[in-house]
Amino acid sequence: MRLALRITLAAGLALGLAAPSFAAEGSYTRRPEKEVHFGFESPFGTYDRAALQRGFQVYKEVCAACHSLKRIAFRNLMDEGGPGFSQAQARALAAAVQVPAGPNEQGETHNEDGEPLTRPGILADYFPAPFANEQAARTANAGALPPDLSLMTKSRRHGHHYVYSLLTGYGEKPPADYHLAEGKHFNPWFEGWAIGMPAPLSNNGVTYADGTPATIEQQAHDVATFLAWAAEPKMEERKRMGFAVLIFLAAFAAILFLAYRKVWADAH
Hints:
The protein is mainly alpha-helical.
């Protein structure tokens, strides 16, 4: 009896070692983030203004079709430490979109065709959502809800590296023993390896105003930088304040040391 049990356990162990590491699609762990340099990561690093403007262009022309950015207003585009757009540029970008107008003088919220009233955006407006509500978003995306990107890089470990890795992670073929559900796309940098979003970037998918070649890697790096700023727009201010505090503490420590030497000089 014991011999039969041992044989059964050994056979089970052998089968387990021969089986794939993950038995179910949902248990496939995503790959570690790709190693890529972002200048703002260092203690004294700052955002690259050109990269922020290019990243905004990628978001506006590619990502904004599905993903909202609820925490950013058009006025933030000209904030210190941000993309560095002028007031005229920010106004033009705001005026290029239509936002809900609200009730008119007659208290109407829709026109005679039943369409919501809209108006050109102003600096105080936040970036408009691509869909009227969650149900509309799910209907347009086969039941999936595209996440808001305002805090995407904060909600993930090494968030900007995650965004870059995900956006550049398409194109590989899945393993032979991996079942990819219909309507899903293979991306090993996404948890479970199956993502509903098709590859959003393509070489020269946008045309950069500064002439930078718009490779997939460049677009991914730029939009990851922009989303890092969107999640932490006061990063540069925080670093400057931290540096000033360190200088103050160092000076204060020096003063205390000199005072100590002065007070105890006659005691030795």
